[in-house]
Amino acid sequence: MIRKYTFLIIFSLVVIFTSCKKEYNNSFDCDVQGISNIDAKVGDSKILNISVSNIQGAPENVELSLKNVPQGISYFFETSQGKPNFVTTLTITVTNEVKLGKHPITLEVKSDNLLKSTNFDLVVNDSVSMTMKVYDGTQWNLDSPAGELCDSATVKLYKDSVSFSRNKPFYTTFTNKNGLANFYHLTPGSYYFTVEKGTLSNILMKKQINGKLCGYATTNIDKYGKFQYRDQNGDAKITELDRVQYDMLILYEDFFSERIVWIGN
Question: How would DSSP label each residue in 19-40?
C-alpha cells in the first residue's frame, strides 16, 4: 500500500512538472535584431533599423524603450510598440549637452509576461579644442559667489578685427544648461570673441570711442559681486586705455583649453 501511494505521488509530481515545463516552453518570447554599438560626434543623428521577431508562444504586444540615457541625448522610435513580427527605426541625436566618452544604454522590451533587455554603447568622441564656461554675474549671491551658470548664451569667435567689424564670426555656438560651450577642430592661434545673452555681455560699461562701442572685458567677479576687468595694456590699473570691443584668447597646438567667462550688464 505504501509503495502504491509513493508511486502515485511521484507520478503526480512528474505530471505537474511536465505540465509546467510545457507551459513555460510555450510562453511568449521574442528576439530583437539591429542593436549595435554607436560611434557619434556632437550634432550627429544616428538611425538603427530594428526588427522584433516572435520566437516562441502566442505573440503579445511589446513596448520598446531606452534606459540609462545620458543627458544631452534625445531619441525616438518610429514605432515603439506592437505585436511581433514588426520593424521600426530608432533615431538617436547627440546634442552639445552630452559628455564625451562611452555611455552604456539599455534597450528594454516589455510585455505583460516578458521583460528582457539588450545593452549597447554610445561612444561620443570628437576633437574638442576648447570648452568655455559662462557665468551670469548679475545672479551673484552668497550661495553662488561666481554667479549662476548661464544657459543659451551666444558665443562668437572671430578670426580678426575685420571680420568682427563686419559681424561675420567664423564659429558660433551656444552654452548648454551647465553653462558650457564646446568648440571643435579649432586651428591654433589667436581669436577675438564675444559672449552675449539679451542685454548681458562679457564686455561691460560700453561707450562710443571713435565710432566704436567699447567697454571692459570681464575676467572674474569678487566676493562682493563686483566684476573684475582685464588690464589690456599691463599697467596694473584699469583706465580708458583698457576699453575694447571684444576679448581675446589664444589656442596652442596639442593643448586643450578651458576658459571661464562672466557676463553682466
Answer: HHHHHHHTS-EEEEE----EEE
Residue in this structure with the C-alpha cell 578651458, named with its chain if needed:
258
Classify 29-124 by CATH class: mainly beta
Domain ranges of the chain: 29-124, 128-263
pLDDT digits 0-9 by tens, 80-139: 999 999 999 999 999 878 888 899 999 999 999 999 999 999 988 777 889 999 999 999
Q: What is the CATH number of domain 128-263?
A: 2.60.40.10
**Model pTM above 0.70:** no
